[in-house]
Amino acid sequence: MQHRRRIVSLLPSATEIVAALGMLDQLVGRSHDCDFPPEVQSLPICSRPRIDVSRSGAEIDRQVKDQLRAGLSVFEVDSALLRELRPDVVLTQTQCDVCAVTPQDLESLLTQGEHSPSIIDLHPQRLEQLFGDIHVVAMSLHAADRGHQLVVDLRGGFESLRHQTSKLRRKPTVACLEWFEPLMTAGNWIPELVEIAGGVNIGSEPGQHSPWFDWDQLLAADPDAIVLMPCGWGIARTRAESASLTSDARWTRLSAVRSGKVFVTDGHQFFNRPGPRLLESTQILAEILHPEACDFGHRGRNWEKL
Q1: Which residues contact 208 (CB under 8 A, 6 or more apart)?
Q2: What are the φ and ψ backbone dihedral angles of 219, each rounded to 5 degrees?
Q3: Neighbouring C-beta atoms of residue 305, cutoff 10 Å
Q4: Strand, helix or coil at 102?
Q5: Spatial separation of the C-alpha atoms in residues 196 and 281, rounded to whole Å
Q6: Which portions of the chain are predicted below pLDDT 70?
Q7: Looking at residue 101, what is its pLDDT?
């Protein structure tokens, strides 16, 4: 009989990979941000943020920078709970110090007690690396065949969408904003998603960490469309926080604003998570950029006009 692994996931995208592999029944703990699929919300929470995430975007940015300047992590791990759960595998990441728990946050777990779990460190920056991470997670859970099939299915979905949008003559320029105060464009895998969805990304390069972006750059680029996808925020919070953009006198100088091509998405559930739902994220972009040709049922649920 195959040995059942006790899994703790401290990364939402990793939790979704475990779910897509059909192995949720082996998950025994999660991070504070792991909320999909919904059934994981009953699991013990093994981490929490050290900052007040209910504050404004500008204040969150200040808190994060203060923590990092002080040499402190943005997150706190419940090491006692982790040892009590006795995981065989802990899924974490080094892709972003301010997005989720890193292996450094787990040092006390590794240095205390006799039970030492395998720490699986994910760090995708492009789609191809996401596929590699799926293979790594699947192998660590003794489910290599399932991992292979999941990657085959995802590749097929992306290629099908690319084929659909490649026939479209119009390729609008797009600015994907990952933070508002200060401005940041979405990097890493997002430029690839925009291209597959039939757009031309501006302000960041594939595989590049999300860069800061100032108003002068935004005005100079003057994109055809602006997609709001702040890290950690859903549609309602993004809409509320967008006041920091819309109240700026420069906002109405943008072509996308004047033509009604500014869109609010659920960045927390989709774009910010490098897991299987990046395919759905790309479908959302395709619907936004080419509503006449693409309809996957996301409008009104996972994106809407500002």
Answers
A1: 125, 187, 188, 191
A2: -65, -40
A3: 10
A4: coil
A5: 11
A6: 1-3, 71-72, 94-115
A7: 56
